[in-house]
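Friendly challenge for the regulars: who can give me the structure tokens for this chain first? No prize, just bragging rights.
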Amino acid sequence: MKALITGAAGFIGSWLARMLRQDGAELILIDNFSYGKEDNLVFEEHDFTKEVIRMDIRDRNGIKSIMQAGDIDYVYNIAGIAPLPDCQLNPQEAIDVNVNGFVNILENARIYGVKKIIQASTNAIYENATEFPVREDSFPPPTLIYPNTKFAAERFAQSYCDTYGMSVVCVRFANVYGPHADCLRKQPPFVPYLVKELYYGRTPVFHSDGTQRRDYVYVEDLVKLLTAVRKGTGFDAVNASGNASYSVNEIYQLAQEITGKHIPAVYADDRHYWEKYPGLFQGAYTIRDEILSHEINKFSLCDNSHAMEKYGWHPETGMREGLEKLIREEFRFLEKYDRENR
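First reply, four minutes later:
Bragging rights claimed.
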């Protein structure tokens, strides 16, 4: 089996490369390193840093040259711009990467006969859902830029499948956590953020009152689903969730128990999350307060029954086990990072 992974130096892409290599796959790895980093590519049993091609998925000639070389069975399009504030601040770039970049993948896959494309989508497209757990086939359209780019990408995937008889599956990720999560990002995801604050003994700042609940999926469980969805034809959309929701406070309590560090958190107004992005509050029309509040306080929980029934997948890693693995590896990474950057 030969597979192309885009966004291979990112959190999820690097884990996917690791699992596919363990399964004996021949891999082509690309990343433009706008969000990915070389540290992600180093695992105990293998170092992928010298195998990655520095390339953007919007590069028409570059993607064409890779596809034209032939014999690619599967493309995993993990590349994209995911942080919500980044997408809101620069919608043109978000659309260009998340939609046009994906269409570049689709078109070249059509021409050069790729068997199947697996697209990284998101459960953020369910941001306006009111009935839970959410199934793949019924939900109101999203509002914010990021989920709309992923929603649009799914529509183009459906179009290519209907028009050309291609096979594409869009996997809608819940909040993914695990070792190699990007804790150094300007606005890190919640779980690696709190782990970083605990490592440094700092007081974490949470938004709203900490009772808001989301669903999470451990990274190794997710990549197992990404390998399982290779079977089947046509278009499909599949939820990838840990099948449970946890509050901010519950996760932080678990992390404190695991680390033995007990630091009371501070709770900030919903708006605080977005204050690092003043551009959202400038101009004739500014982002509405109710949108800010909804994003911080929304509830999420996805129905995994489709993944189980069609692909035989279910999450195996509970939150405590996943957090223990994440904390162990992130503490080791931060210790190394501090030593190298003194």
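Residues 91-112 form the longest helix (22 residues). The chain has a mean pLDDT of 95. Your move, everyone else.
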